[in-house]
Amino acid sequence: MLWLVGGVVSTLFGLVVLCLVLMLPSVRGLGKKNGKFNIDGRVVVVTGAGNGIGKELCRAIASRFKGCTVYMIDRDVDKLEEAKQMVEKQGRETCTRVFAHPCDITVLEDFSRVCMDIKSSAGKRGEHVSLLVNNAGTVYGRTWDDLTISEFENSLRLGPLCHFASYKLFLADMLKANDGMVVTIGSLMSLLPGSKLVEYCTSKAGVLALHDAMRLEVGKSSSDGVHFLSVLPYAVDTGMFRGAFEADSLWLTRRLFPFLETCLVVDRVVVGIVDKEYSIVLPWILTFAPYIVRVLPIPVFEWCLSLMGARDGMDTLRGI
User: Does the keyword Oxidoreductase apply (predicted)?
Assistant: First the structure.
């Protein structure tokens, strides 16, 4: 009985907070640093650039900002080359230089070699990587007993291990120049778990924890010119979650929480970069959802997750 009373009280509290969120759209981005981040002329590195958010972000940078040098990294050679050609076409009027580096970044030795090549290439021009976007990710969509240990390890390599490797390789130059930004494309599922997403939720949670710890540690130094931005979207229509939430029983979930359009996510990320925001949750109405539901009793918490499709949403997954 006590848990039920606590659930009602917590739910009412959550509704009050939600009303405040709806009344205050300015909470989007959870704060900003002073000033703007000028993307013109930046040396940009984007992982997972062969499709989805990575490809569209490269396209947006090439078409909207002048004189950038964009390094695109992806393991799919064909998709990467196709994306490179599209970005080059978009960047002709802005004089954007585009380089493609095919690489399976889960092989850390290969990833480190590619990053060193990029550092060397930029260094020869007297530049440094000043915008790092860690975006690569994958999902298997299997139950824990069907998921192999090697697949789980691969997800961790693609997540926090590769992110930390990129920090080791690029962050020192940013700190030396007191100029740069690290963008972590995470997931709302790092805070709101889902069934058949064990490896994905774990990897994204590690990525977010690493990002926050790095921001805190770097913030202790006098290098206030280096900024960290985390992006936590709900499911995005990139193809990775194709087929998810299609069960007839999840019709309400699809109405309440439709997949986010990739182009709209990218537009929001660009705004967040320029405005030097600290964190973006998409859709913004869910900004406080992970923290509100955490104060609920577990049965109520899991009911809320089920409403969002966390229990059954992946049963119909087809993927890319």
Answer: yes
